[in-house]
Amino acid sequence: MTAAATAPPQFGNAAVPVPYRIVSRVAETADTVTVELAPVAQALPVFEPGRFAMITAYGIGDVPISLSGWHGNRPVHTIRAVGAVTRALCQAAPGAVIGMRGPFGTTWDVSSAAGHDVIVVAGGIGLAPLRPVIRRVLAEPTAFGRVSVLVGAREPAEMLYRDELRRWAARAQVEVIVDRAADGWTGPVGLVTALVAGADVDPAAAVAFVCGPEVMMRSAARALIDRGVPAAAVRVSLERDMRCGVGWCGHCQLGPLLICRDGPVVNHPVAAPLWDVREL
Amino acid sequence: MVMTMVDAVGDKGMTMPDAGLTPFTDGPARLIDMDGLRRLVDVLRDRGYTIIAPTVRDGAVMLAEIDAADALPHGVRAETEAGTYRLRHGHDDAVFAHCAGPQSVKDFLHPSRARLWSADRTGDGAVTTTGPDRPAKRLAFLGVHPCDVAALAVLDRVLAGPEHPDPVYTARRDGTFLITAECTEPSATCFCTSMGTGPAATRGFDLALTEVLDGGHRFLARGGSPAGAEVLAELPSRPARPADASAAATAVAAADAAITRRMPAESLPDLIRAGRESPHWDDVASRCLACGNCTLVCPTCFCTTTEDVTDLTGEHAERWRVWDSCFSLDFSYMHGGPVRVSTQSRYRQWISHKLGTWHEQFGTSGCVGCGRCIAWCPAGIDITREAAELAAPRAGNEPA
Amino acid sequence: MASLAVWKFASCDGCQLSLLDCEDELLTVADQVTIAHFLEASGDVLPGPYDLSLVEGSVTTSADIARIHRIRDISRVLVTIGACATAGGIQALRNNADVAEYASVVYARPEYLDTLATSTPIAAHVDVDYELHGCPIDKGQLLDTIAAVLVGRKPALPAHSVCFDCKRRHNVCVVVAHGEPCLGPVTRAGCRAICPAVGRGCFGCFGPSETPNGPAQASLLQITGMSEQDIARFYRSFNVEAFAGLAGDE
């Protein structure tokens, strides 16, 4: 035989979703909800910050969603309704069963930032995958240096985790900015990139975690590097269409990367030359 | 609603054929004749294999299940050029003297449509999920040319890796029996010699046959695995004489010499990297139909998409996986629109992956030099020619 | 229960009949949706609004324009079905001709006609949620679209070439292996590549694929011996208007 079965058994397989039940659902904004999930029977391995799940709305489809937190041992995901699948997931009520595959992809590798100052730059829904990073860093104040959290949203009503942002502000620098002000907004207006200059950290000794739309990550990373953050210390989370999550389907290629496997989190020197190529 | 998992397959991985593997050798080569080949089909069938072999259908050599060696394409040659393929019925009884048709083993091991799972809501609100079907048949492939054996090793690297073995692929791949036929009649679109995959068979097979016509129709046979040696021992055969071995070697050497199509000799990943902004993509795009044929006939192109379906009641859901191609707009769709809008970028993605980034992703070239993408491109776009065009400005000369 | 309405504009009724052709599935359809308006099947009409409207046919009169706006207003999801509704149909041949002259040739009393100079697709007048192409449409696409709308899924309606489906079902390419003229490389998939499956070239009844390359396709057809005029005529059928850019007669 040219092939033999020798590899250790996997849990189930990466193609078949494992049933999870939505145990709580919080509406964050008009189009975004946070769900806490519990396995119906068997649980998937632990999701580390940065890694993602392929979440199935049965009969509709599945989408990659990064972990946005833990509640005890239950994974928490924040989902924005942008298509049929995410719309179905956002509308699912507590008690509904959805399918989970994962965990897939790379982590934010928060531990390796120990001893460094930390800058988190988030745009829109990009705050969701970064929330476990912020929580972890703030939970271990002695392990990390100064922490600066810079958050942008299109408008005030689209700002995620507003209560939590206020709580974080007691322990870290938290700056928020919106593209468009609304009644009652007294904060700054503009792009989140504009906040980088005011980050209260030692740039040369900082590690940056950046997540948001590609164009935002590119300009934020550029601003961070211009301020003196070493390029190799800037981590970004890439996004492309994914069907399998494990390198079988080919959809998430960005040049040499299979983002589901080699990403989503990569260092800026990996992403930057690929971003520079149009339609890659 | 409670869900339970039922019969999810694919918990088995498989060893990956190692490119540096020492070939299995099982004593000297044997010689079998046409009766021996007929017997081979019987032996495999008796061992429970479903035998997939080249046959003629609709004017092309197509792969199909066969019951007997008579179904092989006796005396058939395939003449190919960029964008054309014609069968010629020759004067002899050669059965493996045809170059690649549009299909490859990929069609059987990585099927064009496969159900990944189905889920049913049951009466009490519970849902059961069932994994992909486990194929009932074990497959034996007869007459696979060495370029396609190499393609199988590439697919193994992509779909049968240790971390996440693809349950559909591995369930079919595991336990296949592979009989290669060394290439003795390459066609004009072949360039395996540039990719180091042929025309001789060196590894990755259970049994290797070399068809010899000169001095009587016969096959030099070598075992490539213990299972192959076992099967060979059941066939009526005699030891190959030096003259037989030499006739076989001559036939393969002649094939090697007949292959004149070439990839540029330089590092193809470097060539691709350097060519990202080449003006040549405009030229290719003017000819490219973005029809996807090159990817769909490629024996290593593995990309797929998924389709979720429900019955009209909505109580039964399934996810199907179907062959996709980087030539469709949907392939790079993100919320907001596709990333690769222009045909330039889609052709560039294909050739860059095939010749360049495949190395970074899977540690091997994605191209095995079978020439299918050249012959089966309706517009006759030639990967070797396009690579040469990319190389030309670097070499400071005109492409050949 | 979701309500279904079927509407007819300028067309031959063939696409509506595809729904009646779903013999095995029709009872299930009837179990899952209320067929509220389907004159081809029943004279009983229930009042709107409707969850799903299937619209067949093209817009050829000013009354059509008013009616399609009204239908859009009372439909939650509007799906056009067939080449007439999605591309103007074969009757769009008149778009580049003299309608008055056509009418005078065909009708004894052309002055009774009140018709627009052009035949246009529904999407030229109102927002359309999904389009089912083809002459006629594919029954499988119709059923999947109904099922998808019922559960809120985006139906699988690929816009890539027919070649994808030829290769997926292991058809031998009629262009490469037989030198047949075939519009498959520039035609939208969805028909399951039925013509190449029986050895004949695609004639484009699903209309153009997402990014058809007209000049490259013309070279392909010329090799088979077709003249420029032959090629232009090849495109002038059910999807004449949609193919106009490729045929070179914009």
Automatic annotation (TrEMBL), chain A:
Residues binding [2Fe-2S] cluster, per UniProt: C244, C249, C252, C260
Pfam families: DHODB_Fe-S_bind, NAD_binding_1
GO biological process: pyrimidine nucleotide biosynthetic process
CDD domains on file: sulfite_reductase_like (cd06221)
Gene Ontology molecular function terms on file: 2 iron, 2 sulfur cluster binding; flavin adenine dinucleotide binding; metal ion binding; oxidoreductase activity
Keyword match Mitochondrion: no
UniProt keyword list: 2Fe-2S, Iron, Iron-sulfur, Metal-binding
Annotated ranges, domain FAD-binding FR-type: 15-110
Entry cofactors: [2Fe-2S] cluster
Cofactor note: Binds 1 [2Fe-2S] cluster per subunit.
InterPro entries: Cyt_c3_hydrogenase_gsu (IPR012165), Dihydroorotate_DH_Fe-S-bd (IPR019480), FAD-bd_FR_type (IPR017927), Flavoprot_Pyr_Nucl_cyt_Rdtase (IPR001709), FNR_nucleotide-bd (IPR039261), OxRdtase_FAD/NAD-bd (IPR001433), PyrK_electron_transfer (IPR050353), Riboflavin_synthase-like_b-brl (IPR017938)
Name of this protein: Oxidoreductase
Organism per entry: Mangrovihabitans endophyticus
From TrEMBL, chain C:
Boundaries of every NADH:ubiquinone oxidoreductase-like 20kDa subunit domain copy: 12-148
InterPro entries registered for this protein in UniProt: Hydrogenase_assoc-protein, NADH_UbQ_OxRdtase-like_20kDa, NiFe_Hase_small_N_sf
Keywords: Oxidoreductase
Presence of the UniProt keyword Membrane in the record: no
Superkingdom in the source lineage: Bacteria
MF terms (GO), sorted A to Z: iron-sulfur cluster binding; oxidoreductase activity
Protein name: Oxidoreductase
Lineage: Bacteria, Bacillati, Actinomycetota, Actinomycetes, Micromonosporales
